[in-house]
Q: What sequence folds into this?
């Protein structure tokens, strides 16, 4: 890979890693589910008027929008709103790799490789260590609730990954834009139910600069710019060459949160995070025959991240039998 393309891969990792700071900023100003609705409204409008509908069924678009976007980010934003540190959220969300593997086996009858099974096991152990670190010294188990909600976000992402397999070959940027149409109304309805009309109305009436900056960053940079670069790299190189850049997102997220927000994980959280990211890395190890050729026009199955993935959002991790945002 030429230096300029490697620099683009690093840029995407930096955008997606610092994306969690932008989310944290927006959550200081508005409700989490309202922030999700604003983000994906900006992703879809007005681009949907200019970007052709991808070669995918409405069923696939709805499934990707509901699980990969609304479910993942609604739960992620809620977890951070309830106190999960931004840096730790960047790491925990990578449990999507485990759920993508499990859902793929259950729904698509895929056969995971030995390295994917080892990676999933390491990821589960890492999550357990992070959980122990979260409740260490806590007065009750309430400290672990945001962590569990973030794990649920990873589950939603994993389901979305499997749902997106039916749209392989579709234009990646088109999938980002058109699936975003599905997000705003359902999440706003959920916010009205959970927070009440008065709280939602106040959230819209009192939008401040923090929300504006957060939405501009998460929608404009993380979603549109980040995934445009990511999909262009995946159009030039095998997924195995590009995917490792996404592994930089969690450590960048941790470092950025420590430098900007003063969030320093304890020893157990750091150890569990390292093991979880290591498990994702192990799960990416594949035979050369499987990674040397990618069908023309296909896009990776998500991420990792994303937001982010955190591999991100509408990139796609390699399929277990044949893995990201980010």
A:
């Amino acid at each position: 890979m030429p230096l300029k393309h490697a620099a683009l891969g690093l840029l995407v990792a930096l955008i997606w890693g610092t994306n969690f700071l932008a989310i944290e900023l927006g959550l200081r100003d508005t409700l989490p589910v309202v922030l999700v609705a604003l983000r994906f409204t900006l992703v879809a409008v007005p681009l949907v008027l200019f970007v052709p509908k991808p070669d995918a069924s409405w069923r696939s678009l709805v499934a990707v929008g509901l699980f990969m976007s609304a479910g993942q980010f609604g739960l992620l934003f809620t977890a951070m709103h309830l106190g999960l540190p931004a840096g730790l959220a960047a790491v925990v969300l990578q449990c999507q790799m485990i759920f993508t593997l499990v859902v793929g086996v259950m729904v698509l009858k895929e056969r995971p490789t030995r390295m994917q099974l080892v990676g999933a096991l390491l990821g589960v152990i890492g999550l357990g260590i992070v959980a122990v670190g979260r409740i260490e010294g806590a007065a009750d188990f309430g400290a672990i609730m945001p962590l569990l909600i973030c794990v649920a976000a990873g589950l939603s992402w994993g389901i979305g990954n499997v749902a997106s397999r039916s749209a392989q070959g579709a234009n990646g940027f088109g999938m980002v834009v058109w699936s975003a149409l599905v997000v705003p109304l359902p999440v706003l309805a959920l916010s009205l139910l959970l927070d009440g009309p008065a709280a939602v109305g106040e959230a819209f009436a009192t939008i401040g600069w923090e929300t504006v900056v957060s939405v501009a960053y998460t929608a404009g940079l993380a979603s549109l710019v980040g995934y445009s670069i990511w999909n262009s790299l995946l159009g030039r190189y095998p997924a195995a060459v590009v995917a490792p850049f996404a592994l930089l997102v969690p450590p960048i997220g941790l470092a950025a949160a420590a430098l900007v927000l003063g969030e320093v994980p304890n020893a157990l959280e750091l150890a569990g995070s390292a093991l979880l990211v290591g498990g994702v890395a192990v799960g990416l190890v594949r035979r050369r025959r499987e990674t040397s050729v990618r069908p023309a026009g296909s896009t990776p199955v998500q991420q990792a991240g994303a937001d982010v993935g955190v591999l991100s959002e509408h990139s796609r991790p390699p399929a277990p039998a044949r893995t990201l945002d980010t």
User: Anything to note?
Assistant: The CA atoms of residues 56 and 274 lie 37 Å apart. The chain has one domain: 3-311. Strands lie at 304-305, 310-311.
